[in-house]
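Hi R.,

Here's the chain you asked about this morning:
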Amino acid sequence: MHAQCSGTSGEPASPPLIAVTCGEPAGIGPELCLRLPERFSAKAPFRLLVLGDRGLLAERARHLGLAVTLRDWTPENPFPPLLADTLDVLHFPLTAPAMPGRLDPANARHVLNLLDRAVNGCMSGEFAAMVTAPVHKGVINDAGVAFTGHTEYLAARTGTPHVVMMLAGKGLRVALATTHLPLKDVPAAITPESLTATLRILHADMRCKYGIDAPRILVAGLNPHAGESGYLGREEIEIIAPTLQRLRAKGMTLLGPLPADTMFTPPLLAQGDCVLAMYHDQGLTALKYATFGQGINVTLGLPIIRTSVDHGTALELAGTGAADPGSLFAAVEQAAEMVARTRKMHCA
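And here is the predicted structure, written out as tokens:
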């Protein structure tokens, strides 16, 4: 059972506390976090807590001329008085000074410490959800830590054997059957077992986190033209179609396998509540074209609520003030909506 989906009678005694991790300190994450008070006033029905280095945030605020007050947060006083233009910060010191746009592997552990604290807080019930600013996979690996992305890391930290990465925005939701894999490894990763697990999670979280009683899922084929009756590949015939048929027999509404080049046309999208693409760029190219700057990333299947921005660290923009906070704002709003919805439901 999802920890965040337990039903409750009456309103909770305290507002939901949502943790926001600053991400890569050399990127745009810290300055995006500093702009949260612009969107979320003291009257919001939830509270935000930023996890990061307080000195870095203060320096970046001065550099950019942002009028925001940083207030130290402690677990002993989780809900201090609400003040306008104030950001509550749980301080995690950097290992080395951080300069905008200059990656330093010495700070990789700092980035992971932020994630670990947010996960622990969500698992214990201290935090209602976590929202993540972007991290840089390359510099974490340069520090000697094998890291393929937030999705896989959070799955390991929560002991979740199978999770689903989904991006969403402007009414479009695209989940992935495989995530950060080289293209040559994708076909072998699409098995009846993995596809079944993915579709079950997608179906369950469409109901729990999005409130859709009977989700309609559009499922892409792997090959061009969904295999062209086997002439362009047999994965559709041997794996995807039989799996969909078995799950339809259990009550799921699944359309496919569909040719990916026409799946994102309005007539087909109107027939579904979400899309399942077989690999990263097959689904996310269309999603990011349609929603970039307002899209978000959601990890489905976790025992916690986690949303994120749909973009990277944008090192070239760090420290310039030109980074658009729209995706972070949307990720916070989506997390808050999920918390409110799941608190009213019982999600198995």
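One quick note: DSSP finds 13 helices and twelve strands in the chain.

Cheers,
M.
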